[in-house]
Amino acid sequence: MAQVVLIRCTSYEYAEVKEAVARGLDLIGGPLAFFKPGESILLKPNLLTGDPPEKCVTTHPAVFKAVGEILQKAGIKLCYGDSPGFGSPESVARKTGIAMAAAELHIEMADFRNGEAVFFEAGVQNKKFIIAKGVKASNGIVSLPKLKTHALTRMTGSIKNQFGCIPGVLKGEYHVKLPELNNFAQMLVDLNSLLKPRLYVMDGIMAMEGNGPRGGKPRPMNVILISSDPVALDATVCRMIGVMPETVATLELGMKSGLGTYLQKDIELLGDDINRFMLSDFDIKKGSNIISWKIPGLLTNQLVPKPVINEKGCLRCGVCVNVCPVIPKVLDWDNKDTNKPPIYDYSRCIRCYCCQELCPESTIVVNVPLFRKVLDKIKL
After folding, report:
1. pLDDT per residue over 223-237, tens digit each?
2. How far is CA 64 from CA 61, 95, 113, 200, 218, in A?
3. Alpha-carbon 91 to chain mean position
4. Is pTM, for the whole model, over 0.85?
5. Which superfamily does 2-277 belong to?
């Protein structure tokens, strides 16, 4: 039976956050149920890019610090790190407030710039990964995901958070090699099966809905979730925001691969009543998983959502061009004219949504074709 703890927390005031995290950990046996004193444990927050914490793009430093302080008190040695989607690990940690929180606890940053090959014969699809050296040097991981929407995987949660254990530009290569959602999701599941984080503490105090994982809107959820089962934790979040867990590829494949369970009958909820956190109007795509189907090329534009630039809001910063993993680029400047927004060549677009994910002004949105909207209303 998987256990998921839900603890109400209404602000990022540190005393309240620390009390909530401590209460949640106590409900599942405390830190020593998962770690031994003296072990070197990596804290893995979500550090997508260097936005301030109030934008709800990254794990809030108060949650990071609360978990760190409680684990240190239990005699556990800590380091931290993540590989951002844009920017260096050091600059992103500084801009998000995580570096300051880590400094207050004397927690050093692990090496997330360099990686080494790890072979994983038990992987369903992926038998080899390049893993950040800081991850390899640790005895275990505490994953600190942020509750957010995501254009490709529908939600950024416990399972998706480990993608940052792959250093630098290598993450983009996975999008190119695995353009179909199910294959990409299976990679994430295999990665989690390899890394086996011992505990997940999700920051859902202020979540992100809509055009996530960077350009959405903050939404109060007032909850911290804790579990050792990432599938059960993410499935619980899905039920809170009106999404059927079986329509989320990482959860469907995660359960098939033995990573965890999304079945409600096999999940024990501890702490506060889940009904206190239910938001049926949470802005997240709730339709079918057509994007995971193998669709003939001629039907792609009629069925698969595509990224679109809102020209009025575009600052011509070029982030979208820089992060596009496809060679040659799917979107680029028209005749090198940077006074106009970049232009897409959708015939080459693999629908990884990296451009939408990292647009700093939220001006790239995912446009759903009309035919797809009709199909999404059908029970498939």
Report:
1. 999 999 999 999 999
2. 5, 14, 21, 12, 19
3. 19
4. yes
5. LarA, N-terminal domain (3.40.50.11440)
